[in-house]
Amino acid sequence: MHTGIALIGCGIVGSGVVKILERRRAEFFSRAGVEFDLRHVVVRDPSKARGLPSTIFIHNDVNKAIDDPNVSIVIELIGGTTRAFEIAQRTLKSGKHLITANKSLLASRGPELFALARKHNASIAFEASCGGGIPIIDALLHGLSANRIEALVGIVNGTCNYILTRMTKEELSYSEALKGAQVAGFAEADPTLDVSGRDAAQKLALLGSLAFGAHVKEEDISVEGIDTLDASDISFARELKYVIKLLAIGERVDGNRISLRVHPTLVHQDDVLAEVSGSFNAISVYGDSLGHALFYGRGAGEMPTASAVVSDLLSTAIGVAPLAFAKLNAFTDSSPRASVLPVDHVVSRFYLRLSALDQPGVLARVTEVLGRHGISLAAILQHESDMGKHVPVVIMTHRTRQGSMNDALREIDSLNVVGAKTVCLRVIDAPKE
Ligand code: NDP
Ligand code: HSE
After folding, report:
1. What is the maximum span of the chain, computed from C-alpha positions, in angstroms?
2. Over pLDDT 70: what percentage of the chain?
3. What does the pLDDT average to over 343-363?
4. What ligand 1 atom has the least distance to the C-alpha of 299?
5. Is residue 272 classed as helix, strand or coil in its secondary structure?
6. CB of 191 shorter than 6 A to ligand 2
7. Alpha helices, H only, 147-291
8. Does ligand 1 come within 6 angstroms of the Cβ of 189?
9. Residue 222 has pLDDT above 70, yes or no
10. Mean pLDDT, range 225-232, rounded to an integer
């Protein structure tokens, strides 16, 4: 079977796709009878040296590539939401199948695109949009379909995990570590998307929609990034036997309501997620029949991401992905809106770092406020210091509602013995099993 492809975008991920297509050509033919014909590679600047085989037709005319009657599958790998949306729309309106790694596009305009695909008898496959090379979307759509998913807890942004790992293990500065992630090709073209937590939130919107059978929008998710994290919190956490990870968490609470959040989180050193380093991602999924399953692998970068794109390509070419797309009411065009738990109702343990005046009675005033709000302390850490009037005091709490914590912090930060806004991070409980 001869399958014409147009690859639109040949940067980090696109280059990997070309390499795998070259490398695995014979196996694709012998295993599946598929012969891929990469008819177009479309980029912004065709004159740029890319080291691609000279036989490949590289140009910058998107429409020419999509409209080629011999192309049946279009791979969008340019990123962003404007031009990428136009590409997706044109592809689907032509009845051609779309493969994309673009979580921003699907998190913001997924329902329109899925509906358009259905209308034109086409399909959309997007394994590479979440978890890089980890087949988590396939797992949620197929492998775990017998389960009601109770929770997803994941490290889903490779850039943030790489930054946090290097800050923790090598004591690199935030900006040096970010530079490393950019050079390695993990970061988005605009890395603010990564470090602000938005990329993880977009992935949680996609994964949460599939896992919980309800349309989760990015704006449903409470988001904090790692861009405001202080290195001192990483070392205090270490002292308490925790590491800080950016986690994306979705869980069913109160029946059918879903709690959705992305934030830096203290994870105990013994937790399996604490071991996930560098650009690796890991997603813990809790199903009612299976229990806990952990999906682990490289979450970003050229070849891991291309691995997911090409698996979608093969699955689309042999008809599996289009069939699943047509038969499963699992996509955001056909799901009801998620009923989301307000963030104030989320229950968690907390890490607080106060800037407290170094004088008698200060801690008593702080703990009085916490006690009045029903917040119980689990640990307190303060170092001897001659650094000046204010010293850092770290408090770990037992579980309490986010709303109670916010009320308590408003009071604590207005005390005349507290010198700066208190840092407040969540602490994740031990794994459920
Ligand atoms: P890059 O910036 O490395 O590559 C983008 C490519 O798109 C370049 O080849 C660029 O051309 C081309 N391009 C940009 N705008 C246009 C346009 N208007 N018309 C034609 N071509 C255009 O991005 P990545 O490969 O890193 O990412 C691509 C997608 O994959 C994004 O959606 C990203 O979120 C997603 N993704 C990336 C991962 C990663 O690890 N990098 C992992 C998972 C998903 P030129 O080369 O001439 O500049
Ligand atoms: N910028 C993303 C990350 C790419 O670092 O995880 C993979 O989606």
Report:
1. 80
2. 98
3. 94
4. 42
5. helix
6. no
7. 158-169, 174-183, 192-195, 198-212, 231-239
8. yes
9. yes
10. 96
List C-alpha distances in Å: 158 to 57, 69, 319, 327. 32, 38, 31, 32
Instruction: Name the nearest CA neighbour of 29 among 367, 280, 356, 318.
Output: 318
Which pTM value belongs to this model? 0.97
Would you please indicate which residues are annotated as catalytic (active-site) residues? 203
Name 67's bridge partners. none
Length of the chain: 433
Residues 310, 101: contact at Cβ < 8 Å? no
Name the amino acid, one letter, at 362.
V
Between CA 332 and CA 206 the distance in angstroms is 8
Q: Write out the DSSP string of 56-76.
A: S-EES-HHHHHH-TT--EEEE
Distance between CA 425 and CA 342 in Å, rounded? 18
**Tokens 């993880």 — which residue?**
200
User: Which pair of structure tokens corresponds to residue 45?
Assistant: 């600047």
Residue 301 CA: nearest ligand 1 atom is: 40
Report whether pLDDT(432) > 60: no
pLDDT, position 382: 92
Residue 232's identity, in one-letter code, is: S
pLDDT band for 1, please (50, 70, 90 cuts): confident
